[in-house]
Each structure stands twice: as C-alpha cells, then as structure tokens.
Amino acid sequence: MATRLKKIRNSLVRNATAVKATGAELTPASAVALGLMSATAALIVGLSVTLTATVVLGLIKPKDESFYKAAPYASLAGTGAGALLGLVYGSQASRKKRSHQASGEQTKAWPGWRDFVVTRKVKESEEITSFYLQPKEPKEPKDKGELPTFQPGQFLIIQLEIPGEAKPIVRTYSLSDYSDRPDTYRLSIKREPSPADLDVPAGLASNFMHDHIQAGSVIPAKPPSGKFTLDVRSPLPIGLISNGVGITPMISMAKAATQLNPDRPIWFVHGAKNGQFHAFRDEIMAVAAQNPNLKLHFAYSRPQAEDSGRYHSTGHVTTELVRSLISYEAEYFLCGSSPFLTSLREGLKNAGVPDSRIFFESFMKTRKATPNSSSSEVSNGQESAEIVFNRAGKTATWTADSTSLPDFAEANDLSPPYSCRQGICGTCLCKIIEGEVEYVETPTAEIEVGSVLTCVSKPKTAKVVLDL
Ligand SMILES: Cc1cc2nc3c(=O)[nH]c(=O)nc-3n(C[C@H](O)[C@H](O)[C@H](O)COP(=O)(O)OP(=O)(O)OC[C@H]3O[C@@H](n4cnc5c(N)ncnc54)[C@H](O)[C@@H]3O)c2cc1C
User: Fold this and answer.
1) What confidence tens digit (pLDDT) does each residue in 50-69 have?
2) Which atom of ligand 1 is nearest to the CA of 226?
3) Pocket of ligand 1 (CB under 6 A)
4) How far is the CA of 423 from the centre of ligand 1 (A)?
5) What is the per-residue burial (b if ≥16 Cβ within 10 Å, else e) of 366-393?
6) CATH superfamily of 114-221
7) Which CATH fold would you assign to the domain 373-466?
8) Which CATH class is domain 238-362?
9) What is the pTM of this model?
10) Residue among 341, 44, 367 at smallest CA distance from 198
11) Domain residue ranges in the chain
C-alpha cells in the first residue's frame, strides 16, 4: 500500500511539473473541476469498499472480531485512495486538454458557413464597436454552445446581406477576445470613413455593422482561421505593438498568454489619437492587473486635456519608442495602419531584429482610385491573356489595364467571392483548370494544390481557365 501511495504521489508531482513546463497552469475553474473529480472518485471508491466489505462480512460471518473492526479502516483507505486516483486522473486529463489548447489546435470546426446571433453590441471607442456572437443553434446536441478554440490572432470571415448589394458582402474580422473554452466570439469593428482625399462611399460592411446590426441579428461566419498567430508555448518575450483598430488581435494574444503562459514577459504598446479613440483601455489594464509580466504603454498622438495621466507618451508609436521599452530579444507582433506597419517593420529590421521574429497583419489594402497598369501586365511578355470563367461559360480578355482577377470577373458580370484582397483570408480561393497565374503579393492563406488565390494573382500564361 505504501509503495502504491508513493507511486501515486510521484505521479502527482510529475503531473504538476509537466503542467508547469507546458505553461498550461491550472485556472481556478479547472482546480474546482479537479476537486470535484477527486471528491466523486473518493465517494465511489469509499462506498464500493464499504459495500463489498459488508457483503463479504455478511456472507462469511468471521468469528474473529478484528475483521469487523478492520472494515471502517478499509472504507477510509478506499475513500483516500479514491480521492488520490481522482486527482491523478483529473490532473492528467486537464494537462492533456490544456496542452492541446496551448498548442493552438482547433476542435470541432464547422464546415462552410454557420449562423451566429449577435447577443451584445458594445461601443468600445468613438469609432470601434464590439459584436458578441453565439451560434444560432448548436450543430450537434453535444455542442451545448461551446465553440471551437482558436489561436490568438485568428479571424472570422463573415457574410452580410446588405440591401442594394447584388451579392452577399464578405469581410474578415479578427477575434478580439480570448478564452480557452469559448462559448462566444467577439469581433470589434471600426467604422471605416471615406478617405479624406477621395469622393467615394464610406466603408460598406463596417458602416452597415455599426448602423444596422443589433442584438438579435443573424450573421453567417466561417470557422476561425489565419496565420498571424501567437505560439503561446514559446518562452520568448513578446512585443504586441499596434495602433488604431490593430489592437483587436493584440487583446486576444495578451489574454491568451496571460491565461496559458503567464511567466512570459509581454510589452503591450498601443497608439491612439487620444482617449476618445482608445478602445479596450480598461480591459487591457484589468488583464495587466492580474499579470505582473504584462507591461503597458499607451502613446497618444493628439491627447486632450481630459487624457492627462491616462497615457504614457505623446506622439506616434515608433521603432525608437519600442526599442526604448523592449531592450532584450523578443518576438514582435505588429498590427495597424499602413504607415505604422511600414515604419515599424523597416525600423525593427534596421535595428537588427531578424525577420523570423517580426510578425505582422495588415487589415486593409489601400484601394486605388485609378488602376495601376504596371502591376497588371501579363507576365509572359504579352499584351493580353484569355481568361475563361468555366462555370459561367464566359471568356474575356485581360489587358494591362485590368486591376485584379475579382475586379475583372465583376466587370464581366460575375460575382466571385473575395474579402481581404491581400491573399490573407482565403475567401477567393478558386480551382485553376488550365494555365498558370503569378502572385503579385505573397499570399499567407492556405492554398490547396490546383487552386489559386485570385485576389493577389494575375495571368502568367496566355490562357487561364478558372473554375468560376
Ligand atoms: C485579416 C484581417 C483582419 C481584420 N480585422 C479587423 C478588425 O478586427 N476590425 C476591423 O474593423 N477591421 C478589420 N479588418 C478590416 C475589414 O476586413 C474590412 O476591410 C474593413 O472593415 C473595411 O470594410 P468596409 O466594407 O467597411 O469598407 P470597404 O467598402 O471595403 O471600403 C474600404 C475603404 O475604401 C474606401 N473606398 C470605397 N470605394 C473606393 C474607391 N472606389 N476607391 C478608393 N477607395 C474606396 C472606403 O471609403 C473605405 O475607406 C481586417 C481585415 C483583415 C484582412
């Protein structure tokens, strides 16, 4: 018995060490679950031993009284062993589950589109509003509303039926919260205005979300995806650097690291115009209050009097600022406006940070009011290419004036699906039946063999047949 107890004790110590080593700490919720599992096992084993002892004593009716005296001790020993077994089993199960989550593996992703109901709409700043989404109905009875886990930094692709639009509008939005057992997804969307220098309509989907989507609205979404993700198991310090709405994946990353690997040093550096435009200030401060390894820095470019004491520096987030805060080796995650990304990526590289430690996501490709012919020329040296839209039974001629394959398809009365226009979200993935295309930007979405991401490609051969 002593050897068995020693083995169980050693197993518990090993488990505790392994949980620590993966960075998968027990949360209060999992500690309560472990306690319950242990108490249940104690009850079951204790009762079984008592019952067995009673039946055996009743059957053999031993004359020696010491047998009857030993019975309560046997029950107690059974209860204790049950409690220990429950702990060992529970901690092993918990470790397996949490290291699986820490590795970012996804569970139970649904195929295609799934309807979500907006359960809450919360204003986060002057221009950013959050939308909380829950599945309209669980796909399987065992689902009970729990959603697939996701890697911090991933996004959802959503579809909006906007009155007046010929086809559903597809857009990509980062998941702006994190839980290792999500039952709700949160998207936080900036109302996109028209560019100051152009007479064009304001952002279609973002303004529709702000103005017309309310609690109770139903939105179809594809499962979480995307490769701009934080490996929560890595021990390297992290710089989460953002401006404007680029804060959304950073909140998710900061929360995931805090929950799953709290020993990891994090610098959360964010730039906003001023307090009115600063989303999630209180939320990230609450996370930092729980995690002494999470350091915050807020830079306001145009602070107002009422912001006094609520930010750390005046001006934009620059490489100099970041380097003055993070002087050690770190992984840098960047998300924000185009000028911000260009300057930080260049600056960090020039400061000697290797490419392998700089990760970035750009939310919006600047739309060109006039086509840029130089990037659209057919790359085989010819003036034009024949594009065959196989399903539609249409053939059209691509010339140097053509901007992108989705625009080209739309100009030919087709409605191909696309969203990010940067080869990130994968919405425009399409089978290529004949010919070849060339990527004008390096895509990051997964590309199946025999398929192409049309939003960042142009024809490479004189004839291209697409499954559109
Ligand atoms: C991976 C990823 C994650 C993202 N995460 C988020 C997020 O968390 N939160 C968020 O708010 N956004 C996010 N985005 C951006 C989002 O997907 C949308 O691009 C954004 O909401 C704008 O969409 P829209 O339909 O409102 O604007 P669009 O209608 O696509 O217009 C975009 C801009 O172009 C202007 N425009 C319109 N017509 C023209 C024209 N002819 N010429 C030039 N300009 C024109 C509009 O005024 C607007 O400023 C993400 C994007 C990606 C790729």
Assistant:
1) 788 777 777 777 777 777 77
2) 1
3) 155, 171-174, 188-190, 192, 194-195, 198, 200-207, 226, 245, 248, 361, 363-364, 367, 369, 420, 422, 424-425
4) 14
5) eeeeeeeeeebbbeeeeeebebbbbeee
6) Translation factors (2.40.30.10)
7) Ubiquitin-like (UB roll) (3.10.20)
8) alpha beta
9) 0.76
10) 367
11) 2-102, 114-221, 238-362, 373-466
